[in-house]
Amino acid sequence: MSEFLTLPGDLPAPADDGACAHLAGLPLPSMALPGTDGLNTDLSALPERSVLYIYPRTARPGVPMPEDWDLIPGARGCTPQSCAFRDHHAELRSAGARVFGLSVQNTTEQREAATRLHLPFPLLSDAGRALCSALRLPTFQAGGETLLRRVTLILQGGLVEHVFYPVFPPDRNASKVLAWLADHPEP
Protein backbone atom coordinates (compact mmCIF):
# COMPACT_ATOMS: atom_id res chain seq x y z
CA MET A 1 0.00 0.00 0.00
CA SER A 2 2.93 2.33 0.55
CA GLU A 3 3.26 2.62 -3.25
CA PHE A 4 0.09 4.73 -3.21
CA LEU A 5 1.41 7.16 -0.59
CA THR A 6 3.89 8.80 -2.96
CA LEU A 7 3.53 10.04 -6.49
CA PRO A 8 5.76 8.94 -9.36
CA GLY A 9 7.73 11.82 -10.86
CA ASP A 10 6.50 11.11 -14.39
CA LEU A 11 2.74 11.38 -13.85
CA PRO A 12 0.99 13.16 -16.71
CA ALA A 13 -0.50 16.49 -15.62
CA PRO A 14 -4.16 17.11 -16.46
CA ALA A 15 -4.94 20.06 -18.73
CA ASP A 16 -7.47 22.75 -17.95
CA ASP A 17 -10.18 21.76 -20.40
CA GLY A 18 -12.67 24.33 -19.09
CA ALA A 19 -14.91 21.60 -17.64
CA CYS A 20 -15.25 23.47 -14.33
CA ALA A 21 -15.54 27.04 -15.67
CA HIS A 22 -19.27 27.09 -14.86
CA LEU A 23 -18.89 26.20 -11.16
CA ALA A 24 -17.82 29.48 -9.49
CA GLY A 25 -20.91 31.17 -8.06
CA LEU A 26 -23.14 28.16 -8.70
CA PRO A 27 -25.68 27.35 -5.98
CA LEU A 28 -25.33 23.92 -4.41
CA PRO A 29 -28.32 21.61 -4.69
CA SER A 30 -29.99 20.54 -1.48
CA MET A 31 -29.24 16.84 -1.07
CA ALA A 32 -28.05 14.62 1.74
CA LEU A 33 -24.83 12.75 1.02
CA PRO A 34 -23.84 9.85 3.31
CA GLY A 35 -20.52 10.24 5.06
CA THR A 36 -17.95 8.06 6.75
CA ASP A 37 -18.89 9.75 10.03
CA GLY A 38 -22.33 8.05 9.86
CA LEU A 39 -24.10 11.33 9.10
CA ASN A 40 -25.80 12.67 6.01
CA THR A 41 -24.43 16.05 4.95
CA ASP A 42 -26.28 18.66 2.90
CA LEU A 43 -23.49 20.82 1.49
CA SER A 44 -25.97 23.57 0.57
CA ALA A 45 -26.89 24.03 4.24
CA LEU A 46 -23.42 24.21 5.80
CA PRO A 47 -23.21 27.28 8.05
CA GLU A 48 -19.46 27.75 7.63
CA ARG A 49 -16.99 27.95 4.79
CA SER A 50 -16.04 24.45 3.66
CA VAL A 51 -13.50 22.75 1.45
CA LEU A 52 -14.79 19.90 -0.71
CA TYR A 53 -12.04 18.01 -2.45
CA ILE A 54 -13.41 15.71 -5.11
CA TYR A 55 -11.28 12.76 -6.17
CA PRO A 56 -11.65 9.71 -8.45
CA ARG A 57 -11.19 6.88 -5.94
CA THR A 58 -8.91 5.71 -3.16
CA ALA A 59 -6.79 2.62 -3.51
CA ARG A 60 -7.68 -0.38 -1.36
CA PRO A 61 -5.10 -2.84 -0.07
CA GLY A 62 -5.05 -5.96 -2.19
CA VAL A 63 -7.32 -4.50 -4.89
CA PRO A 64 -5.57 -3.51 -8.12
CA MET A 65 -6.23 -0.09 -9.61
CA PRO A 66 -7.70 0.06 -13.12
CA GLU A 67 -5.32 -0.80 -15.94
CA ASP A 68 -3.09 2.11 -17.01
CA TRP A 69 -4.23 4.16 -13.98
CA ASP A 70 -0.94 6.07 -13.86
CA LEU A 71 -1.27 7.05 -17.54
CA ILE A 72 -4.60 8.84 -17.07
CA PRO A 73 -3.87 12.53 -16.43
CA GLY A 74 -5.05 13.41 -12.92
CA ALA A 75 -6.15 9.92 -11.88
CA ARG A 76 -3.31 8.91 -9.53
CA GLY A 77 -2.90 10.68 -6.21
CA CYS A 78 -6.09 10.26 -4.19
CA THR A 79 -4.31 8.81 -1.16
CA PRO A 80 -1.55 11.49 -1.07
CA GLN A 81 -4.22 14.18 -1.53
CA SER A 82 -6.30 12.82 1.36
CA CYS A 83 -3.20 12.53 3.55
CA ALA A 84 -2.26 16.15 2.78
CA PHE A 85 -5.72 17.33 3.83
CA ARG A 86 -5.35 15.20 6.96
CA ASP A 87 -1.94 16.69 7.72
CA HIS A 88 -3.20 20.27 7.19
CA HIS A 89 -6.58 19.70 8.86
CA ALA A 90 -5.84 21.74 12.00
CA GLU A 91 -4.60 24.67 9.87
CA LEU A 92 -7.67 24.49 7.65
CA ARG A 93 -9.95 24.51 10.71
CA SER A 94 -7.97 27.48 12.11
CA ALA A 95 -8.60 29.24 8.79
CA GLY A 96 -12.34 28.72 9.40
CA ALA A 97 -12.97 25.90 6.95
CA ARG A 98 -14.47 22.46 7.40
CA VAL A 99 -13.08 19.73 5.18
CA PHE A 100 -14.90 17.02 3.25
CA GLY A 101 -13.71 14.57 0.61
CA LEU A 102 -16.09 13.24 -2.03
CA SER A 103 -16.00 10.41 -4.57
CA VAL A 104 -18.45 8.05 -6.23
CA GLN A 105 -17.18 5.15 -4.12
CA ASN A 106 -19.68 3.74 -1.67
CA THR A 107 -19.48 4.61 2.02
CA THR A 108 -18.14 1.16 2.99
CA GLU A 109 -15.12 1.56 0.68
CA GLN A 110 -14.64 5.14 1.85
CA ARG A 111 -14.89 4.16 5.53
CA GLU A 112 -12.05 1.67 5.04
CA ALA A 113 -9.87 4.44 3.58
CA ALA A 114 -10.86 7.00 6.23
CA THR A 115 -9.97 4.55 9.00
CA ARG A 116 -6.74 3.30 7.40
CA LEU A 117 -5.55 6.87 6.65
CA HIS A 118 -6.76 8.27 10.02
CA LEU A 119 -8.77 11.05 8.37
CA PRO A 120 -10.21 13.53 10.89
CA PHE A 121 -12.96 14.63 8.47
CA PRO A 122 -15.69 12.72 6.62
CA LEU A 123 -15.56 11.36 3.12
CA LEU A 124 -18.92 11.80 1.37
CA SER A 125 -20.32 9.33 -1.13
CA ASP A 126 -21.96 10.40 -4.38
CA ALA A 127 -22.40 6.79 -5.49
CA GLY A 128 -25.70 7.70 -7.15
CA ARG A 129 -23.95 10.59 -8.94
CA ALA A 130 -26.69 13.06 -7.96
CA LEU A 131 -24.29 15.86 -7.01
CA CYS A 132 -22.09 15.02 -9.99
CA SER A 133 -25.05 15.45 -12.33
CA ALA A 134 -26.47 18.55 -10.62
CA LEU A 135 -23.12 20.38 -10.74
CA ARG A 136 -22.09 18.88 -14.10
CA LEU A 137 -18.77 17.76 -12.64
CA PRO A 138 -16.20 16.41 -15.09
CA THR A 139 -15.76 12.65 -15.26
CA PHE A 140 -13.60 10.04 -16.98
CA GLN A 141 -13.79 6.32 -17.66
CA ALA A 142 -11.43 3.80 -16.07
CA GLY A 143 -11.81 0.12 -15.33
CA GLY A 144 -15.40 0.11 -16.61
CA GLU A 145 -16.43 2.87 -14.16
CA THR A 146 -17.33 6.52 -14.53
CA LEU A 147 -15.17 8.39 -12.02
CA LEU A 148 -14.97 12.03 -11.03
CA ARG A 149 -12.07 14.17 -12.16
CA ARG A 150 -10.12 15.78 -9.35
CA VAL A 151 -11.48 19.23 -8.44
CA THR A 152 -11.56 21.15 -5.15
CA LEU A 153 -14.34 23.56 -4.27
CA ILE A 154 -14.50 26.25 -1.60
CA LEU A 155 -18.12 26.43 -0.45
CA GLN A 156 -19.71 29.38 1.33
CA GLY A 157 -23.36 30.11 2.06
CA GLY A 158 -24.72 27.42 -0.24
CA LEU A 159 -22.61 28.60 -3.20
CA VAL A 160 -19.40 27.52 -4.87
CA GLU A 161 -17.08 30.35 -3.89
CA HIS A 162 -13.87 29.19 -5.61
CA VAL A 163 -12.72 26.33 -7.83
CA PHE A 164 -9.33 24.61 -8.03
CA TYR A 165 -9.16 22.79 -11.37
CA PRO A 166 -7.20 21.02 -12.58
CA VAL A 167 -5.65 19.86 -9.32
CA PHE A 168 -2.03 18.86 -9.82
CA PRO A 169 -0.02 17.64 -8.14
CA PRO A 170 -2.70 16.35 -5.77
CA ASP A 171 -0.41 16.14 -2.73
CA ARG A 172 0.00 19.96 -2.85
CA ASN A 173 -3.70 20.74 -3.12
CA ALA A 174 -4.24 21.26 0.63
CA SER A 175 -1.39 23.77 0.89
CA LYS A 176 -2.75 25.68 -2.14
CA VAL A 177 -6.18 25.77 -0.50
CA LEU A 178 -4.62 27.09 2.71
CA ALA A 179 -2.82 29.85 0.79
CA TRP A 180 -6.07 30.82 -0.96
CA LEU A 181 -7.95 30.92 2.35
CA ALA A 182 -5.24 33.16 3.86
CA ASP A 183 -5.60 35.57 0.93
CA HIS A 184 -9.43 35.49 1.03
CA PRO A 185 -10.68 35.79 4.62
CA GLU A 186 -14.38 35.32 5.13
CA PRO A 187 -16.44 38.48 4.66
From TrEMBL:
Keyword Plastid in record: no
Domain Thioredoxin: 22-186
Gene3D superfamilies in the cross-refs: Glutaredoxin
PROSITE patterns reported in the protein's UniProt record: THIOREDOXIN_2 (PS51352)
Top-rank taxon, per record: Bacteria
Residues annotated as transmembrane: none
Keyword flag Oxidoreductase: yes
Alphabetical list of CDD domains matching this protein: PRX_BCP (cd03017)
Keywords, alphabetical: Antioxidant, Disulfide bond, Oxidoreductase, Peroxidase, Redox-active center
Pfam families: Redoxin (PF08534)
Alphabetized InterPro entries for the sequence: Peroxiredoxin_BCP/PrxQ, Redoxin, Thioredoxin-like_sf, Thioredoxin_domain
Name of this protein: Peroxiredoxin
